[in-house]
Amino acid sequence: xxxxxxxxxxxxxxxxxxxxxxxxxxxxxxxxxxxxxxxxxxxxxxxxxxxxxxxxxxxxxxxxxxxxxxxxxxxxxxxxxxxxxxxxxxxxxxxxxxxxxxxxxxxxxxxxxxxxxxxxxxxxxxxxxxxxxxxxxxxxxxxxxxxxxxxxxxxxxxxxxxxxxxxxxxxxxxxxxxxxxxxxxxxxxxxxxxxxxxxxxxxxxxxxxxxxxxxxxxxxxxxxxxxxxxxxxxxxxxxxxxxxxxxxxxxxxxxxxxxxxxxxxxxxxxxxxxxxxxxxxxxxxxxxxxxxxxxxxxxxxxxxxxxxxxxxxx
Length: 314
Known about the structure:
globular; 3-stranded parallel sheet
């Protein structure tokens, strides 16, 4: 049966909870402290994204996990979907040639009934930390963190009145290959909490393209187009149906039945004694946070500017 505790301290004092792993799903600004406590007790940990609210904190957590030989994964569940695994295989195999660019967007209207915490704050990270990581994930899917580094990232934003959180951001990132023979490329990314978006993503290459049909953060289909000329092409659609749902549960978000993919990834890694999961490595996570933080640093305004009403505020 399930065990209940009177708080975090009571749980940490218990030596016989019997948990194989722990899932941290509290406010982002509490993630580092809780994960550090779990890592110190060598409890394998899956932490909801964002893992922390700064690149430095993310790096510190991964360093602690490595030093303690304890599993730690940021919950970017998109990477555990079969469609994402297939996309990585195709891209690594050169199915669309050398990647040139990524175009992706993700947004939903937080004013339409979302909990206040979704908007975030200067402490918890705003929309960049909430869903910007999904866009950074797509950039890194195309420009693998094993082979590419972030050279530059720019962004413009609509900021929240009074709190200054990034509500809508248009960002661009330039990636460069560590091997001089690898082509570099760019990513065009849009995230917003002001409207619902189609949520599609296209990876463009020298020999074709790969498109995630909506919704790309819970991908169920891939369109792979190969080109033989400027006007001639062939498209193959690959379908990845969701796991069966017996209807016994109500889900908070679309596609949540597929969280089992992430759970299975964690289970495999923990059984193998690994400190990270191959689907979303520590290097992947750090690279994603560097993209989002670089963009957000450019978008955030001084407090005096945030407090002043201006066109476009929300």
